[in-house]
Amino acid sequence: MKKTLISITLATAALSASAQQTLNQGSNYLLSQTVDVSQQFLDLSNTYFSPDHLVSFDAKTGTGVVEWQRLQMHPRQAFNANGYWILPLENLDFPGPAYDQSPQLRFQIDPVNARTLRIRVFTSPIVPADPDDDVMLVEKPADGRHFWRVKETSDKIVYTSEEGSLEIMQSPWRLVLKDKQGRELTRTRVLSDNDSTQVKTQPFMFVKRGSDNSRSIEPVFSLAPGEKIFGCGESATSLNKAGQKLNLFVTDPQGPETPDMYKPQPFYFSNRGYGVFMHTSAPVTVDFGQSYIGSTRLFMLDEQADLFLFLGEPKEILTEFTNLVGRPDLPPLWSFGTWMSRISYFTEAEGRGVAKKLRDLKLPSDVIHFDTGWFEVDWQCDYKFSPQNFEDPEKMLGDLKADGFHTCLWQLPYFTPKNRYFKELCDEGMAVKNHAGGLPYEDAVLDFTNPKTVKWYQEKLQGLLEMGVTVIKADFGEAAPYLNGVYSNGRTGLYEHNLYPVRYNRAAYEVIQRVHNADRGGDGEGGVIWGRSAWAGSQRFPLHWGGDAATTNAGLLGTVREGLSFGLSGFCFWSHDIGGFVTKSPEELYRRWLPYGMLTSHTRVHGVETEPWLYNDDFVKAFRRSAELKYRLMPYVYAQAKECTQKGWPMQRALLLEYPEDPGAWLIEDEYLFGSQMLIAPLMEDVKERDVYLPGKDKWIDYQTRKVYMPGWNRIAAGQLPIVILVKDGSAIPEVPVAQSTDRIAWDKLKWNVFKADKKQAVGYLFRPGDMEITIVNK
Q1: Is 548 a catalytic residue?
Q2: Catalytic residue at 478?
Q3: Contact (CB, 8 A) for 572 and 649
C-alpha cells in the first residue's frame, strides 16, 4: 500500500504509560472513578495497527483474515499548533523474522437471524475462548446463516438478508452496513479516508501498548449529518447521545445529574435504522461525534471487538437486543403498587405504625421497606433483625402480609472490618482479593464469581425470605474492585468490575425466585429485587431504581431522562425515589413529582421524612389522589407490563419508540408514553401548564378534562393532578375501583374507560393474574 503521510490534530496531550495516568486522564485516580479509555489511544509509546486489506475469506464458515498496517504517532508542529502525524512504522522487534511487519489476523461473521449479525475482530493469533459462564447472554446466539445469502465479487463480499446487507470491502478492508433499500447506514473508517495533510480522527484500529504489550481495540464508524444516537444505559444527559462522550464504567455518580452512570450499557441505536451491542464487560468509552462530528468511536479496553449489529426500527432493535441479553419474567402484581419507605425505619413499632397510618388514611400501598436501620447497628449488614428493636419480626411480617403489605429489606455486598462476617468472608476466601492475596479495600467485597460465596449469600437471604420477607434491596454493587481486584474465577477487575452488578443481581433474584416458586407453586410471575447497579444481562433480573436524585428540579429532570434512557437500553421496568433523596423534599416539588412517580412502572417513596402526613392534610389528599389513579389503572399497567416482557420494550417509553416516523418524536426527552396508549408530561418547574408535543397523526384526549388536542405542539394545562395525562384517540383503558392493596382488587368490577374523538372504535388490552395471553378488546 502507498505510504501516506498524515497528521492528527488532538486537543489532549498524550499520556505516559503509567497505568493510573493512561486510565484516568493523567490525574490522580479516585476509587471507582470512571475510566476514559480514549486516553489509551493517544500514547506516543504505543504501536498502532489499522486494517489494510482482506487476505482470505471462507463464506461457509464466515471466517476471514485481514492484514493490518503497523503505524505510530509522531508529534508535529505546524504554524505554532502541535498535533500528531500517523506514520507507517518499520518493525524493529528482535529477532525480526519472528514478528510480522503486517500481522494477518482473523475476523468472524456469524449471522444470528435476519436482523442480527455478530462480527468479531481479533488482535492476536490466539482467539480468546468464550467464558463458561457468560452472564451477559441468556443463551448461546442462534445460528442464523440460513437467513443470509453470501456473494463474493472482485472487490467485496456481500451478506444479504431480507432486512439489509453487510459489505466487506477487500482493499482497504472495511465494513459497510445497508438497509433493505440499499441505503448506507454506516461504515467503518479506514486510514485512506483521511487526506494527505491533516486528519482530526483515527481510523478503525487497535493499539499495542509500549508499557506491557497488551492490546485494546477501537472500532470507528461513520456518523452521518443529522444522525441521532440513543441508549448506553441509565444516562441523565440529553437522550440523543450524538455530540457526547460517555464512559461505560459502572460507578456511583451520587445521583442522576452527571454523565456517569450506576447502570451503563454497551449498547446503542441510531435513527438511521441500526443498533450495536458491544459484547464486552471491559470498560468502554463511546464518542459519538464529540471529538470529530463525522465519527462514532468505540474505545474498548478489550483486546477484541465482539459486536452484534442490528437492523430495524427502534422497537425491533430492542427486541433483537433483548433476545440476546434476556428479558424479565412478569413481576408480581403487588410490585406495581406503592412502596413506602424512608431512610430508615429502625423499629418494628415504626414499621407497624407506618402501615397502620397508610390504611387509616386510605393511601393505597403494597410494600413497606426497611432501609439501613433494621440491624442492631445502622448500616452494618448481618442479615438479622435487631433483637432490641424488633420484638417478633416473623409475626410482624405475617401481620403486615395479612394487611396487604409485602416487606422489603435493604442490604449491601460490602462488609466493614467491624462487621460480624468480615473475618469469615476473608478466611474462607469469599471476598474479592488483590494481587497479593489480601483485600483491595478496607471492606470485604463479596466475590460472586465464587460458587461458595453465592451459596453463603443465598442462604442468608433465604432465611429472611422463609421468615416472610418478600423483596431484597440489592443496593450498591458499583464499587467492585477494578485496578487491583482478582476474582475467584481467575479474572481481574478489567472484566469483572462491570459484570459485578449482573452477578449480584442474579444471586439475589435467583433465591427470591426459588422461594417464591416454592410458596406459590410457580404462577407465571417472577420475583423482584430492588437494584441500583446494572450491566448488560441485568435485564433479566428486575427491577432497578434510579439512585439518589437531588431534591431539586435538576434531580427531577435527570430522573426523567435516565428512566427514558434506561428503557431505550433494553430494560422493561424501572423506578425512582419520588421527591428525591437525602434531604427532605420541598412540598411544591414533591407534589409535582408524585403523579409522575405513580405513572412509571414501579412506584417508591423514599428519602428523608417522606410520609405525606408529615407535611399537611392537603398534601395527604394530593398523595391519595395520585396513588388512587395508579390503583384504578392497575389492569392497564399489568397488561402493558406483560407485553413489555414479551417484546423487551419499556413501560416508560420515549415517544420515538412508538412513532419513529415522526421526526418530532426523536427530539422529546421530558415527556413519555406510559405503555402504548397514554402520554405523560410531568411539570418540570413550578408552573400550571406546559408545552406538550403530541406525536403521530391522531388526536389525543386529556385524561383529566376530556379536552381533545391535535397532534403537534400544544399548550396544555395540568388538571387536578399536577401533571399532563393524555390518551391516544381510539383507546379503551381498563380500570377497576380503587383498592387499598392489589390483592383486594375487584377484577369482576372492571370497566372500560373509552377515549374516542375521530375514531369509530376503541381498542383495549387486558391481562389478569392467571391469564395465559393478552386479550384484545374492541369498544
Answers
A1: yes
A2: yes
A3: yes
